[in-house]
UniProtKB/TrEMBL annotation:
Residues 1-265 form the Pterin-binding domain. It comes from Desulfoscipio geothermicus DSM 3669. GO terms for cellular component: cytosol. PROSITE patterns: PTERIN_BINDING. Keywords: Cobalamin, Cobalt, Metal-binding, Methyltransferase, Transferase. PANTHER family: METHIONINE SYNTHASE. One of its GO terms (biological process) is methylation. This is 5-methyltetrahydrofolate--homocysteine methyltransferase.
Amino acid sequence: MLIIGEKINSTRKSIDRAVRDKDVDFLREEVLKQVNAGAGMLDVNCGTLEAREEPDTMKWLVKTVQDIADIPLCIDSPNWEALAAGLSVHRGKAMINSISGETERFKNVLPLVKQYNASVVALCMDDRGIPANKEQSLRVGVKLVSELIEAGVPVDDIYFDPLVRSVATNPETVLETLQLMEDMASKFNGLHFVSGLSNVSFGLPERRHLNRAYVVMSMASGLDAVIVDPLDSTLMALVYATEALLNMDRFCMQYIKQYQQGKLKVL
């Protein structure tokens, strides 16, 4: 499971302040906490800045985070110019967050994916928005992934996000999302699946319980990357346990290693 740390995001007030003030010491603490907790990649987002400021700030943020930790980044912005700026200074293979079936988004982001040989989060939506049901989702997903592959993007570089909705308002959403991943996996051998956790529990109390349960259920249906807070030690322990139970961790070696490092303690 690829753990993508979510916390270097300027929608958090403390990160917004640190980015605007170029507070490297604060960012260093936030970066290292996530890496030490098990993140294999960090999502970086400075989208709260004005559009004209975001590209230069993204360039600074990417360089700063990679100077702190030698780790690949998931460069996250709806602004393709900010994506381009971050990619231009990124060391190693980056991930782009994100592309979709929306005409303008696809046209502007695809050249970046190819130019920088980047992995890419592929959102299951098009010009009509998020599909209303699993049949529409499958059509949108198949079209998007097929077009990426036809354009020369290796399937191993595509991380399909089925865009789970809130179970509070869409009771069927989780079961439909699990089926969508299984259907997409049957059509595209080697396709990856990624999810953020915030949507599934939106509007409900004690959201972390739903988020944790969703990760476990989704891993059984093919989820192999997640954008999450790696400082949630309970969630991380559940990920390691689920990998062992799904035979993704042969002889439980990773699980044992995490135990020996004291990372399976539930707070």
